[in-house]
Amino acid sequence: MPADGGPTRDRILDSFEKILVSGGTRSATIDAVAAEAAVSKGGLLYHFRSKDDLLDGMLARLAARGAEDVEKMRNAPGGPVDYYLETSIDSGSDFDRALIAAARVAYESEERATRALAALRDAWFLVLRDHLGDDSLARTIQLIGDGLYFDDTTGLTDKTSLSHVRNVLKRLGALDS
Questions:
Q1: What's the pLDDT at 1?
Q2: Is there a contact between 81 and 135 (Cβ–Cβ < 8 Å)?
Q3: Residues whose CB is less than 8 angstroms from the CB of residue 139 and which lie 6 or more positions away in sequence, other chains included
Q4: Model confidence pLDDT, tens digit, residues 102-139
Q5: Which letter does DSSP use for residue 27 in this model?
Q6: pTM recorded for the entire structure
Q7: Residue 1 lies in a domain
Q8: Which residues, 6+ apart, have CB-to-CB distance to 35 below 8 Å?
Q9: What average pLDDT does the structure give for the chain?
Q10: 151, 126, 153: which is closest to 141 by C-alpha?
Q11: What range defines the domain where residue 118 resides?
Q12: What is the structure's pLDDT at 2?
């Protein structure tokens, strides 16, 4: 068995995230997560001793995925700004599910989730700031990305939004051509 617990551990965390997204923290009981992951309660408890351990595991995995995303952003062929905007659309990826799950937990006043999301947001900001050399412009682009993500995850998306944003940012010289 791999040191990280391998596929069973990931399946448990995937199930925890799915339940958090669909029903919030009250729905994400140990029994519900075990059933969703198709493992026994004992099997779940082998990997995570409590719901708090599940949350810690989920947030640690989010941080690792976030670090990978920041590295992709930093090295994106179209530049960090375009990468950030392009990925500010909910693709239904595992990373998107993890972000939404952490946001659900943070919304319910869980400081660990709030700190994890803030750390990721800060990392994205630093890449934007380093690339642009301008704190205000970097923060503005981050807020635009937040708006794109909100619109997309709530079903309010205008399919032309991203192209409008790109047009304006090109005029401002903030987007690589």
A1: 32
A2: no
A3: 125
A4: 999 999 878 999 999 999 999 999 999 999 999 999 99
A5: T
A6: 0.89
A7: no
A8: none
A9: 92
A10: 126
A11: 6-172
A12: 36
Spatial CA neighbour of 107 closest among 10, 33, 26: 26
Neighbour count for residue 164 (Cβ, 10 Å): 10
Length reported for the chain = 177
- The answer to whether residues 54 and 12 touch, using CB atoms and an 8 Å cutoff, is yes
Q: Is residue 36 part of a domain?
A: yes
Alpha carbon distance 35, 43 (integer Å): 11
The number of folded domains in the chain is 1
User: What stretch of H or E contains 113?
Assistant: helix 111-132
Q: Which single residue is written with the structure tokens 């630093």? A: 126
pLDDT band at 32 (very low <50, low <70, confident <90, very high): very high
CATH of the domain at 161: 1.10.357.10
3: pLDDT strictly greater than 50: no
Are 34 and 51 contacting, i.e. CB atoms less than 8 angstroms apart?
no
Indicate the burial class of 141 (C-beta count within 10 angstroms; 0-12, 13-18, 19 or more). buried
pLDDT (tens digit per residue) in 58-77: 999 999 999 999 999 999 99
The DSSP code for 59 is: H
